[in-house]
Structure formats: structure tokens, C-alpha cells
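The material for today's practical consists of a large collection of protein records. Read left to right, the C-alpha cells trace the chain's path through space. An example says more than a description, so a record of this kind follows:
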Amino acid sequence: MGRFRDLWASGRFAIKQKQEDVDQQQHEALDMIHELSPDYAVSEASKVILDALKSRRGQETGKWLKAMVPESAIAPPQQAQETTGASIYDEMTTWMDALFKQFTELVFEFNKQAVGTDLLISYEKPKLYEKKSDEFWYKPVTKTYQGRLTTRQWALVVRGRDAKISIFVFPASMLLAFNADQDGEQDQPPFMEVVRADVNGINAWTIAGERAPLEAVPHLAKELLGDLIRVSSGAMAESELFTSHADAHKLGENLAVGYDQQAAQAAIPAQARHKSGEHTVNLDEMNVFDACDIVDGIIERELQRLYTEAAKLGPGVPQAETARKQISTVESFRMKMLEAFEEFTTASQALVAADQAAQEQLARK
């Protein structure tokens, strides 16, 4: 199967009532994905790694960042001034933009090595989402700044709201349900949180009580990207945690040790290998998600070609910058298509649910 079929299959879980058990919803959704598309289902090894990483993040991350970026290396704070909600929001977006700038650089280099595997990373830079609440007469608007990284099976989502930045890691098949409920953080606990707090009289961004200034962002970006790859590959060595990462992430060397690239390539479903090239496709039997999966396969092939070419270019040559821009353009198109399909799926599944509810009501009369 493909990612769009998986999104469609998981769509009905996005419109469940909040009082239902969320863990059970996720279990049912993942079971459905496993049944429809076993090659896309997450492995038990990946779940174990995620649980292990969750227990290591938080307090240890704060201490590690403090050691990586000592106080003497942090730029002195600007003159204290009254902080408004707007200024906190602007600081939050600046912090997240800095994080995703680092992600962009790291992903570009990593994908050169991940071509042909299910670890190829797609990224969506943060953007603003606004949601109006109809529960109050004055209809307040919630502003959410959100971006994400995704492999074929896992997603890392960074969501900022004023004085808090929440980082989540969960199966990519749950993205639609997560995005459909912008208020569902109590149901999907964050993997890590960055919050505004007072540290020694200074109001700053913190992780587990330790300062997390912009100077710490490059180190944190490498660690978070490493977490996503560790979980996605289902392989992790203890030496990979909280290291200096002086070298770039290298698949199978200092990151995702034990990952079998040949096995990953063999696991990529035949449909993802460009079903568009086959002549046995029956258009009359295709659905919207089938068509999107075919286009997605073509985009995947184009990205692999561009990354393969980029890997042959030396740093700093004009062709390298052109290759980066081409890759960015293709990635942007892919994310817009995925976002449009998510909106379409949510709306369609809501209509189906409303129709079923109406039919049930008529049946009870």
C-alpha cells in the first residue's frame, strides 16, 4: 500500500469523540494499517526504542545541553523589559525557525545516505495554524506554529504555542488524527517540552529546568534527528545517546547502528517502486488515495535521483546549491499535496460519519 491509503484508513479515527480511550483508538488504527499495509506497520523494536528514549529525555537532555553549551558561551540577555504575549510568541517562532533551519541542513546531508531506504526524511517547515473556538461568545483564536519531519513509518512533530514548544514522536499513520485535534496534547503526551521559565532570575527557554538558548539548538537538532532515525530504523546502540556528534550523522556508523540497508530496500513495497511504470493499472478500480500514492511514488523516485546526484557534488560548487533548491521545490510540492489530502480525508470522513449518524437516528425512530 502507500502513505495516502494509510492516511485514508486512519482518517475515521481523527473524528472520534474525545471521551473514547485514545490508546485504544491508536491500537485499532495501527492494527488496521498493519492489516492493509504490513510493510508500513511499525515494528516492536521501534516501539521499544521509543519507550527507552522517552525515559532518557527530559531531565537528562537538560543536563546534557547545559554541558554542551556552558553559561559562558551563551550570549548575554538583552535588557529586561516587560514581556507581552505577542513577544513570547515571536520568540517561540524564532526558536522553532532556528531548530528547523538546522533540521534542513541535517536532513539534506542525511538523505544523501538514505536514498533507496525507508529512512528517507521528508520535512515541513513550521507554519501558522489558527483555530477559532465556538465554545465562547467572543470566539478566541488559538495560534499554533507547527512543523514536522517524517520517515515512511514515523513522524517527529514540533508544535509551538506561546510559552511552550512541544515535541512529539509517533507513528506516521497517526498524523491525521493528531493534526485534526489541535487540542489533543493531553491524549498524546509530548516526547519533550521546551518552556519559558525563570532560571536564576532570567526568563528563558528551558528543558527540564535547564536553559535551552538559541546556542543550544544545533546540538538539540542533531539529537532529535538521531532519535527519529533510531526509532524508524528499529536499531540503537547505547553509544549513540548524548554524544557530541562532531561528525555528520552517518547511517550505520554513528547512527542507527545495526540498520540493515539492504533489508530496508527489500522491504519497500512494490507499489512504492513506481507503480506508474506498470501497464496493468486498472483506472476504473482506482480510488483517490491510489492516484495519490502513484504520484507519491513518482515524487519519491525524483527525490532519490536528486539526492543521488547531490551526493556526487562537492561542497560549495554552484551545482550543489542548485540541487538543494531543486530538492526543496520537490519536497515543498510533496508536502502541499499531503496536506491537501489530509484536509480532504478529514472532511470526507466527517461527512461519512455524519451520514452514518443520520441513518442510525432514522433507524431508531
In short: DSSP finds ten helices and seven strands in the chain.
